[in-house]
Design goal:
Layout: H1 3-13, E1 16-20, H2 30-41, E2 48-51, H3 56-66, E3 73-76, E4 79-82, H4 84-92, H5 95-100
Parallel strand pairs: 1-2
Antiparallel strand pairs: 1-3, 3-4
Helix pairs in contact: 1-3, 2-4
Length: 101
């Protein structure tokens, strides 16, 4: 299975997917910590997460998959939502909570 096929499978078979640096319990950057914190605030206790630091092919491949240069990246129901800034903005205006219902 190619990296792109693996990413597609991950984002389509899981409702909420976060590609991040580190893990939910030990995020390795502030942006990833912010994104996982927001998901927890929204009641998403166990999103499917991928630590891109453990897999350089996924780390590069996810940037190509979404045509988005930064990590973290949030997907809901197979759709790319955005990175930390977009997730924060959507959380603040209530859009994210609506998407997650």
């Amino acid at each position: 299975m190619s990296t792109q096929e693996l990413i597609k499978e991950q984002v389509t078979k899981n409702k909420v997917v976060l590609y991040m640096k580190g893990t939910p319990d030990f995020p390795q950057c502030g942006f990833s910590a912010n994104a996982i914190g927001i998901l927890k605030e929204c009641g998403v206790d166990a999103p499917f997460t991928v630590n891109v630091l453990e897999n350089p092919e996924i780390r590069q491949g996810i940037k190509q998959y979404a045509n988005w240069p930064t990590i973290p990246q949030l997907y809901i129901n197979g759709e790319f939502i955005g990175g930390s800034d977009i997730v924060t903005e959507m959380f603040q205006n209530g859009e994210l909570q609506t998407l997650l219902k």
